[in-house]
Amino acid sequence: MAEPAVAAAQPLKAGAGIGAQFGRWLDQRIPPQRSVTLTQRNVFIFPTRTAIVFFVLLVLLLLGAINYQNALIYGTTFLLGATFLACILHTFRNLAGMTVELVAAHNGFAQDDIGFDIRLSRQAGRDCHGLQVGWPQAVKQWVEVAAGDAVEIKLFSVAERRGWFRPGRLLVETRYPLGLLRAWTWVDLTARALAYPAPIFEPLPVGGSTVAEEGQVIDPRGADDFSDLREYQPGDPVRHVLWRRYARNGDLVLKEYTGFVEPRVWFDFDTARGDVERRLSVLTGWVLQARSQGIEFGLRLPGQELAHGLGEAHTTAALERIALYGLDGARGEPG
C-alpha cells in the first residue's frame, strides 16, 4: 500500500503579483471578506506613464510662456493643468462606491481553469466606465457598470495542482477618463475552489462481470439461468455435465449458468498503477467514466471507503475525497 505524498500536492494559495510584505499590509488595510465596497480607504491612485509625458509637456509649455510672455501659452498650460487635477477626482470616483462580491466558486481540475462568479454593483449615482477586473497573471475582463445596476462576470485562474485552490487578491483598476491616472485596488474575496486531479482515462476495472447484448450486467460464475453448452474441461463441476448426451453419443458437454447482477464496480487505489498522483488521476478518470456511463461505483482509498452510489452528489463526494487525499487539513481550511 502506497503512502500518501503529502508534500507533492499541498493546498495551493496563489498570490502571484503581490509581495509578501505588501500582502501583509493589504491584509490589515483591506481585510479578506466576501463582499467589499470601495472607498478612499481601499482605492489607490497614481499617475501613469502617459501622465509623465503630460507633465513634461506642461513644463515645456510653461517655460515657453515665461520666455515669450505669451498669454495664450499661459492659458493653455493652466487649462491642461486644471484638466489633470479634475482627472484625479473623476478617476477616483469611477471606482469609489462600487461593491465587489464573490457569488460562487466552481470546482475544476488541476492544470485547468477554475471559474469564479463575481458581481460588480453600484448604487445610484455615477456609472463606472472602463473597469478592468481579473486575478493576478490571468486574463482580465473589461466591465461597464451602470448606476443602480449590477453586472456578473466569470473570471478564471489556473490551478497548478490538486487540493484547495485560492487565486489570491482580485485586481480592480481603471484609467478613466483620459488614461493619465490609474486607480486600483486589491480585494481578497476569500475565494477558494477545489481542484481535482487531472484525469487519466484508462479502461474501467473488471470485477468478474460482463455486459450482455441487451445491456444487462451478468456474472459468468452465477447459477441462476441456463446460458450455453460447452465442452467439459478438467476442474469443471461434475454436477453441470449433461449426462444424457454423454450416454447417447459419448460427448462430455457442460451446461453453463449465469446470474444477473447490478452494474456496480469498485474503484480501488491499490488497483491503479503508478505513483500516488498518477493513481489519483486514474481514479478521477474512472469516476468520470462511470458518471457518463451510469455505472454504480464505490471508492476505496487507504484508510477510507465510499459506498456504492450514483448521481452527481455521489460523483462530487468521490472527487472531493480523491482531491483531498493525503493533504494536511483536508477537512478544514487550506494551509
Commentary on this structure:
- The chain is an alpha+beta fold and 335 residues long.
- It is built from six helices and 20 strands.
- The protein has helices spanning 20-29, 49-68, 71-95, 243-249, 276-293, 312-324; strands at 12-13, 35-37, 44-47, 98-105, 108-109, 112-122, 128-134, 141-145, 150-159, 163-166, 170-174, 181-187, 193-196, 210-211, 217-219, 225-231, 253-261, 264-268, 296-301, 304-309.
- The strands form five sheets. The protein has a five-stranded antiparallel β-sheet with strand order 3-12-11-7-8.
- Strand 19 (296-301) and strand 20 form a beta hairpin.
- The longest helix has 25 residues, at 71-95.
- It is rod-shaped.
- Mean pLDDT is 83; it is low at 1-16, 208-223 and 330-335.
* Overall residue-averaged pLDDT value: 83
Indicate the low-confidence ranges by residue numbers.
1-16, 208-223, 330-335
Q: Describe the sheet with the most strands.
A: 5 strands, antiparallel
Percent of residues in helices comes to: 25-40%
- Compressed to H and E, one letter per element, the order equals EHEEHHEEEEEEEEEEEEEHEEHEEH
Q: Give the N-to-C terminal Cα separation.
A: 26 Å
Strand order of the largest sheet: 3-12-11-7-8
What would you call the structural class? alpha+beta
Number of strands: 20
Strand-residue fraction?
A: 25-35%
Output the keywords.
single chain, 335 residues, alpha+beta, 4-stranded mixed β-sheet
